[in-house]
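To whoever is on call:

I kicked off a structure prediction for a single chain this morning and the downstream step that reads the tokens threw a length-mismatch warning. I double-checked the sequence; it's 417 residues and nothing unusual in it as far as I can see. Pasting both halves so you can look.
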Amino acid sequence: EHAASGRAKFVRVQAFKPATAGAAAAAAVATAPAAGRSCCSPVVQLHSQRQLPVCNSSRSRVRVHASRSAGVAAKQDFRSKPANQVNVLVVGPTGYIGRFVTKELIARGYNVTALAREQAGIKGKMGREDTKKELAGAQVVFGDVTDLQSLRDSAFSGPVDVVVSCLASRTGGKKDSWAIDYQATKNVLDVARERGASHFVLLSAICVQKPLLEFQRAKLKLEADLQAAGDISYSIVRPTAFFKSLAGQVELVKGGKPYVMFGDGKLASCKPISEQDLARFMADCITDADKANAVLPIGGPGKALTAKEQAEILFRLTGLPPKYFPVPLALMDGVIGIFDLLAKIFPALEDSAEFGRIGRYYAAESMLVWDEARGAYDADATPSYGSDTLEAFFAKALREGLQGQELGDQAVFGVGE
């Protein structure tokens, strides 16, 4: 499926030990042991002991001048330059994580170019002037990530050393996932290689390690293309759940409503990371050589938390007696089955079934490193980073509300929209 010619090429992969760095249904991000590739070696080292297909780029409309490993090594001199001499392009800068990443890069002094849509933000509510004001300190340009020439004329009209991609499909629907999580991001990668960029930082998701959903498959295919490129180094960041994705029931609990959870609330757990801490980690990927050519699972500080434990934090902070509304996982299976059946008659309902699968996935699958050998999630193997805690986030949300934490199109079943 990865080769345009129908004949897949393969690269031998080698294990690489991850570097330790120091919601109920709407989070996204998964992980796997970090992977590395020597800049002096033409061998692409991925994150597990298996063979992965390399995408044949014969159908691409860009011409990439392949500089082998020596050329890649030579291009890494941007790490030795002062930040104000390093040109960083951010794509997806008005998305929820993209805003934090862009502002962190600006604060660190980089020459930041932010590529945005004409109508950006949640549901396209931000116009050009709104975007420029939101991303003050960056050179904001407007273009279309689905169009190669638009990328050349806008985002890559000047020199680019590092690309930071925070692109993500807005809904997780099937067509949207392949259009954005794969093809649009691939367009950016292709033009970055064409124009001689040195490094590509990709915001992926920890859940791609067990791909059951369309957006996960799309992200994995893009990861494989990036790792196989050979003429640009990379950092693939796979975060765990974001704080915002776990905030959907804050107002409900505050208002005295029961906390809704699947089963006993212990089916899945995560090590949530704040958006600001994640932005710092992604910015570190520009300067830290040990994060180059690596797949980087990353979570926040502290122990992994189940949905039940997250609820207990909320009840403790509000001082209200715990009340729970358990939902059998089988109920969601039934709903998904109905949508799958209806989608065969009414194709427009196909995404509704996919949204149901997304909700079920996050209800039953932990956002932690998956240990293939044991067939289990491993909280201890999931690296922690930062200092922001979920409890402090909940406390602030209870005091000040959730302004700015809207999920928009990424809300599952409208929760947190």
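Update from on-call: the warning came from a stale cache, not from the record. Cleared it. Sanity check on the structure: The CA atoms of residues 113 and 139 lie 5 Å apart.
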